[in-house]
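Appendix B.2, paired examples.
Example (i):
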Amino acid sequence: MKVTQEKLPASQVVLEIELTPETTKQNYEEVIKNLASTANIPGFRRGKIPRPILLQHFGSNRIKRNVLDKMISDGLKEAIEQEHIQVIGESTLRSSIDDLIKQYEPGKPLTISVLVDVYPQVEIPQYTNLNVKAEEVKYDPKQVEQILDQERQRRATLIPVEGRAAELGDVVVVDFKGLLTQSESENASGEPSPIPGGEETNFQVDLQEGEFIPGFVSGIVGMNMGETKEVPAKFPADYTNPVLAGKDAIFTVTLKEIKEKELAELNDEFAQEVGDLNSLSELLAHLEKVSRQQAQERTKTNQQEALVQEILKNATIELPETLIQNDIDIILQQTAVKLAQEGQDVNKLFTKEVVAIMREEVRPAAIERLKRGLIIQLIGERESINVPEQEIELKVKQILATYSEGERKNINVEQISSLVYNEVFTQKVLDWLLERSSVELTSAESATNQELAPASLRESVNDSVTEVPISTTATSEE
């Protein structure tokens, strides 16, 4: 089979596949033979239908379409194998099937033109002996104070109060209903529209700034029990749901309960309860050690990121659209899982309009992620960076140990192994790059502003340097 390739931008290739007269004739005869043995035409036994009757019954164009479907499928498969092409996604005919039907005559040559997305070629002019700058994250003693305060807040005893208005630091229970305050240009009627999932009863809110969208907490502060008030608020520009992002809203809030926090005392008993440590001084020493390690790890991450960005800046990578769309799908799936875990109704949130907007908004992130992955993969392959199987097995065992026996039955161990491999492989490549370049450290914000706090003191003690952002999600009170 003769195949001619024409390379196009965005990692696309046009394959001109020339089918020989023998091929076009043989495939036609095979289809006719198959139809004759399977067709059910009144007055004729299967396998004994004369060809003129068969052609009259099915029609010439219908038979040719069946032949072309087979020849295109078989021809493309053979061309891909012959030319050793890494095709991604589905192929596209460059001419319509109707035009091919007009051109096709059994026993005569036929050329089929097919457009395919191919695995991108990556060109990296240099990835060692680089000179870049990266921000250094320094340890801040306030980090330990912040962790302790967060843990005391989390473990506080809630005491109902009466006779005063809600204050910052309280925990309140409210009913609320939210509306978007749209302009007439956005809404033909000019009337506010309901916020999807924007209505709750017995909703518990920690009155701390940053616990909800801007304006909501400050609007509740000063309210008295039994009071109903309209609270204006604004969704952040980077809000998860792009339809709501940056929009003004108004919430009708009814305050039902006010509770104040009684914080636990910082003493040896507190240290034993939350960290399985003997004394408060031992806990403080451990948290200082963890915070210093986290600052060092963040600094290292900044160094590695600076190198990756420098490599990307000079790399040549033409991503095929199929690959981009596939990664967008993955990002949206991950977003949906996260929202579902937060208790949101994904089916209501992910409307056709929302998904279309989200696909455009996450496109740059998908492109960035794909390019990073490709250069790391290429460097790892060029430099023969391997991950020992024993290392993967050990990490997988550690992950599985965190689940109960019943939970482990539903876990895809092969998938976890693949994720662990990719994570370890990436880290080994980044470490390799860091050892072979010069990174100048520059001053940066303190660790306190770098979100280094672990999710809990117990995680800090047991898991050492694990970085887990503090949860700021308000919850509905049972």
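Example (ii):
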Amino acid sequence: MFTIVKQFESTIAAFYNSPYAVATDCCTHAIELCLRYKNIKQTICVPRRTYVSVPMTAKKLGLNINWVDTKWRDYYHITNSIYDAAVLWKHNSYVANSLMCISFQNSKHLKLGRGGAILCQTLEEYETLKAMSYDGRDLSITPWGLQNITTIGYHYYMTPETAQLGLDELPKAMATIPKLWSYKNYPDISKMSVFND
């Protein structure tokens, strides 16, 4: 059943022109996986105007937040190699040697209700992030009970049903003009009480 997820990943990677794409259950979890994969321990940069799940993820991971007044469009840096690209829908837009996190939530251009992806450069990144998203399991067809699982997993994988919906909706998404997103679409979340306790 998960061959359909691999097909969706390959199609998304080809659209963005990234070597690999790891499908996830949402963009926020994609960001969390990247922060864990890169072993980020200190501080991440968060625009004052973005979605609340990014700084909330930082708080849950015990990271400090460096609020920045960036006038971003389409995507922004969280670290020097991790991007929040939740709203990005643009052909050939992958930034080489980065981890770019995409969203397929209902307000995004490819509307799947829930879902995300990590665009990445190397096979090692793909295999490790894939295992992390899928309970630490490897990509073989060996039943999980017979595997020697060596990676901590987070149960953040995309289901085959969501991947099939993505493949079904992709032609329409590719044929229509996306909304242009920027910092202007968001309030200043740095003023919210939850981030100032």
